[in-house]
Specification:
The structure holds two protein chains of two kinds. Chain A contains ten helices and 16 strands. By secondary structure, chain A is of the alpha+beta class. Chain A has two domains: about 270 residues, no CATH class; about 120 residues, no CATH class. Chain A has a six-stranded antiparallel beta sheet, covered by helices on one side. In chain A, a hairpin with a 2-residue loop joins strand 7 and strand 8. The N terminus of chain A is likely disordered. Chain B is an alpha/beta fold. Chain B folds into two domains: about 190 residues, Pectate Lyase C-like (3 Solenoid); about 230 residues, no CATH class. Chain B has eight helices and 32 strands. The longest helix of chain B has 17 residues. The N terminus of chain B is likely disordered. Classes of the chains: A alpha+beta, B alpha/beta. At the A-B interface, helix 1, helix 4 and helix 8 of A face helix 1, helix 2, helix 5 and strand 4 of B.
């Protein structure tokens, strides 16, 4: 049952503080000067012809439409800054086929995709879960340019940078090298006007991937999971616009600005085998002249492998999982975070308070989501946060996009994390 | 409602705490009267000049709204625009049933100021239609009629029955967005979701789920949220598991001439400033038309004008109420015509209520669902309900005689259970057989001061009442009632004695509204 919840003076102090804080905040974070620098989160029509200066497209419509767009200001935005933009810079041509980028040789049908020189493969320490898809990733920074290091945010990647991620499924997760079928390759391009996303869908012959702006549903994907259980599901290739659902931050006018997610120092801070040589990925980039400002490695943060107990304690691993899987929406500068006030980025979960979900009633979670509070310390079974990442029910599961199956390991991890919190009743 | 924890708070503590609430006087008062957004926000619709001159023209123009008046007809047309297609290339792309993938590809490569013209018939989608562009219009051949899951010769139905999980129907972020003359059928989540957008026009659409009373239906039919200048008119919304038509966290909205039936909540105005709700029909929902703020949201709702709506027969069992939860709507007792919670400056006139089994209108404090004031900090402690002016309406009767349809559930719908208990006692021993037309929880301004009988300024005057009506308003004193009934030895007579009834015209509820009056839209 409920217990008295007004702990007297303690709360009075909180309340006073709250009042003061709220007074300095100002209530209407409404856009002011909407047009200045504009807004268009997705700079619209991507010029398909290389070399067309962006200014030409926009001339007369809204001078400066591009230059301001991507500067989301402080916070996680970081990435695109106005300095990069500018009417003179050429756009990256967007080909109809993946091979048109010239980023790879070969194909899944023919020995696998091989990144060309300068298109650098990488792996994060903990990946975003996508229905057990195998992912291979590359980063391309154009010749003569460098990415800027950030300790916390996404690396500051210059115009012309291209990030790719290829999603594949093996027939049997226990033998991930065998019978692999590539489904899609997602391409993020840093255009002068900001980041743009393009999905490419692999053909049945596995010889070419074709641009699929509208996304696709690939029905009846079947795989045998690590427990030997056959799983069948429909796989969603997100449409271009759906990419922004995860890949955005809000700028000061609360417009969505597209950004990459995983290209952060703490996730890149691990070894990768290049050729036959293992090297730290960040140092490798820096050695190629593609990354500037990298401090010595002992000063670079590192997110652990969320499922390797040797790398970090339970708390850090669980928070890391939430950070890479949830925080692109659940942070103070994203639409969903802004609405729900549930913040699961690694900084926000440092203190397990209300905004981190502890004893937090969701604003509008609807009914039937496992409980009344996002996290009930000590009891995952009545915690909405766990319920949503455990369930496979449409409308209730999280993340909103990119998952049809339960990530069993993660469900266990988050359950353990919640259960390990000192138990207390929520009010 | 959430469980009512007020009795568990020692009153002395509550008094001490709530006394502190006088401190944040620096709320958003400056917003409450003017046109907060018009000035800082946008260009002026009448005088704008798009061609490359935007950058400087709107800065600091404080009086845009005023200059519109002369040039624009109609209320929403007078809204300033944040984005305009005037002087820009405008194109139309036409799609017919069977061209779903072509449509999806086009939708994801749209140039601004494009119209998507959809032919008559049935479109089958396996994914949401996701729009992230400005100046987009989607127009079909007609919305068809209730129950039609397929399009005819003069209707366009977008069928999402076989879409992937977790997807909405149409999902929009953009400025100057219009959708009209189509139906959205069986969306997995929300039918039409519009977020972070400005100048939104939703006209003559229908959102519907095939099965009624399904908790697994999508939550919302029409769902504009966190937006500015939103018009929802001549639409229909059926069978949503939360709200048929929702307008939330929005500034400046007009919701008129819509029909909402068979939803949990018919029409829901949440954390919204400046809403004009006119001429809607909200019938056969669990609750018809609701106005509330939720805790934790930074927009403090205010200035809601509710005119000429029909809010009758909202007695549908709460099919979202499947387990204890924090969802406000899932805890509403069946038969609640209107509830107003944590809201202020709400005027209701020219409406018709009746045949709502629990009550026609309930006015509640936000503390009834979230008693911890700090949880309301984001919205400047916006838990109070005050300045509610109910006048010139018609109450046809038949309401309040079967609270929560006679099937109360203390765990899932605790407020209804308390009202049920008190009125069960009233009918048995006091000759009071109906809950009065307006039930006020008596909480605000907290803490309760028994010498100040109407500190919340709730006014109930000049309404047409059934001949049988005796008292028309009850001060339910929810906190005290809850204390008597939720103790280990529930005391019904004591609970009853805490409640007070007032006939229309009796002081202190015979006041005449608030000043300044509403000037909407």
């Amino acid at each position: 049952m409920r217990t008295p919840f007004f702990p007297g003076l303690g709360l009075a102090a909180v309340l006073l503080t709250a009042a003061v804080v709220s007074c300095s905040g100002g209530e209407d974070p409404e856009p002011s000067g909407v047009d200045a620098g504009d807004s268009t989160p997705d700079a619209g029509t991507p010029p398909v012809d290389s070399g067309t200066p962006d200014a030409g497209e926009d001339a007369g419509v809204d001078a400066g439409v591009d230059s301001g767009t991507p500067d989301a200001g402080e916070g996680d935005a970081g990435t695109p800054d106005a300095g990069d933009a500018g009417p003179g810079l050429p756009s990256v041509a967007i080909p109809d086929t993946l091979s048109g980028f010239g980023l790879f040789t070969g194909s899944p049908a023919d020995g696998g995709l091989q990144p060309v020189e300068g298109n650098i493969p990488y792996e994060p320490t903990t990946p975003l879960f996508s229905d057990y898809a195998l992912k291979s990733r590359t980063l391309y920074v154009p010749p003569g340019k460098t990415a800027g290091y950030h300790a916390r945010d996404v690396l500051d990647l210059p115009v012309g940078s291209i990030i790719t991620k290829t999603f594949s499924f093996p027939a049997d997760l226990r033998e991930p090298e065998k019978d692999v079928r590539a489904i899609e390759t997602r391409v993020l391009v840093r255009q002068p006007g900001g980041w743009e996303a393009y999905p490419y869908l692999w053909n049945a012959a596995q010889t070419e991937a074709t641009k699929a702006s509208g996304g696709a549903v690939v029905p009846g994907i079947q795989l045998i999971d690590e427990a030997g259980v056959t799983r069948t599901f429909d796989y969603l290739v997100p449409s271009r616009n759906q990419c922004t659902k995860c890949h955005h931050v809000l700028d000061s006018a609360k417009n969505q600005v597209m950004v990459p997610i995983g290209v952060k120092a703490r996730y890149l801070n691990r070894d990768h085998v290049y050729g036959a040589q293992a090297a730290n990925q960040l140092q490798h980039l820096a050695g190629l002249g593609k990354l500037s400002g990298l401090p010595s490695l002992d000063e670079v943060p590192r997110a652990p492998d969320a499922f390797n107990p040797d790398e970090a304690n339970l708390d850090t691993r669980a928070r890391t999982y939430l950070d890479i899987n949830c925080a692109h929406c659940h942070n103070p500068k994203s639409t969903a975070g802004d609405t729900s006030r549930l913040f699961l980025d690694i900084a926000s979960t440092e203190t397990l308070n209300l905004n981190a979900g502890v004893c937090k009633r969701p604003g509008s979670a609807g009914s039937g989501v496992g409980g009344e509070f996002d996290i009930v310390p000590g009891d995952h079974s009545v915690s909405i946060l766990w319920y949503r990442l455990d369930t496979e029910e449409s409308g209730k599961m999280m993340p909103e996009l990119g998952r049809a199956l339960r990530h069993d390991q993660a469900s266990r991890l988050i359950a353990d994390w919640i259960d390990a919190m000192p138990a207390r009743a929520c009010e | 409602m959430r469980c009512l924890p007020l009795p568990y708070a020692p009153r002395a503590v509550l008094v001490a705490l709530l006394g502190l609430l006088a401190l944040p006087a620096c709320s958003d008062e400056e917003d409450d009267t003017g046109t907060p957004d018009a000035g800082q926000q946008v260009r002026d619709a009448g005088t704008q000049n798009d061609a490359g001159t935007d950058a400087g023209t709107d800065a600091g123009t404080q009086d845009d709204a005023g200059t519109d008046a002369g040039t624009d007809a109609g209320s929403s047309a007078a809204w300033p625009v944040d984005f305009s297609c005037e002087g820009k290339e405008q194109r139309t792309l036409t799609f017919n049933a069977g061209q779903e993938q072509e449509l999806q590809n086009a939708v994801n490569d749209l140039a601004e100021c494009t119209t998507l013209q959809l032919g008559a018939g049935t479109f089958h989608f396996n994914n949401a239609i996701t729009i992230r562009q400005n100046g987009i219009t989607i127009v079909g051949a007609g919305k068809g009629t209730k129950g039609e899951g397929t399009g005819g010769t003069a209707s366009t139905v977008l069928d999402f029955s076989n879409a992937v999980g977790n997807s909405n129907g149409i999902d929009v972020v953009g400025k100057l967005f219009t959708v009209k003359d189509l139906a959205i059928w069986n969306a997995k989540k929300d039918g039409l979701r519009i977020e972070n957008s400005t100048n939104v026009f939703i006209q003559r659409i229908r959102t519907e789920w095939a099965q009624e009373n399904q908790e697994s239906n999508g939550k919302y039919g029409i769902y504009p949220v966190k937006s500015t200048y939103v018009l929802v008119e001549d639409c229909e919304a059926y069978n949503a598991a939360d709200a048929g038509i929702y307008v939330g966290q929005t500034r400046r909205a007009i919701v008129r001439r819509n029909v909402a039936k068979q939803n949990v909540a018919g029409i829901e105005i949440e954390n919204t400033k400046y809403a004009f709700v006119e001429g809607n029909t909200a019938v056969d929902n669990t609750t018809g038309l609701v106005v509330f703020d939720l805790p934790g949201n930074p927009i403090k709702g205010t200035d809601i004008l509710v005119v000429g709506n029909t809010i009758t027969g909202n007695n549908r069992p709460n099919f979202a109420s499947v387990q204890a939860s924090s969802s406000t709507v899932s805890q509403v007792p069946a038969g609640t015509g209107t509830f107003i919670l944590a809201s202020r400056r709400v005027e209701l006139t020219g409406n018709t209520w009746g045949d709502n089994n629990t009550v026609d209108i309930a006015v509640l404090s936000g503390l009834a669902i979230e008693p911890d004031p700090t949880q309301w900090q984001a919205g400047f402690f916006n838990f109070n309900s005050s300045d509610v002016y109910v006048h010139g309406n018609t109450f046809i009767g038949g309401s309040g005689d079967s609270v929560d349809n006679g099937t109360p559930d203390a765990e899932r719908r605790p407020l209804g259970a308390l009202v049920y208990a008190v009125y069960g006692y009233g009918a048995a021993t006091q000759g009071v057989t109906h809950v009065e037309h307006l039930l006020w929880d008596g909480i605000d301004p907290a803490p309760r001061n028994e010498t100040r009988l109407n500190g919340a300024n709730i006014c109930f005057t000049g309404n047409a009442l059934p001949a049988t009506t005796q008292a028309s308003l009850v001060d339910f004193d929810l906190q005290a009632v809850s204390g008597h009934l939720r103790s280990s030895t529930p005391k019904l007579p004591e609970a009853w004695n805490e409640t007070r009834r007032y006939a229309q015209g009796a002081a202190p509820f015979n006041c005449s509204g608030f000043t300044p009056g509403l000037a909407l839209p």
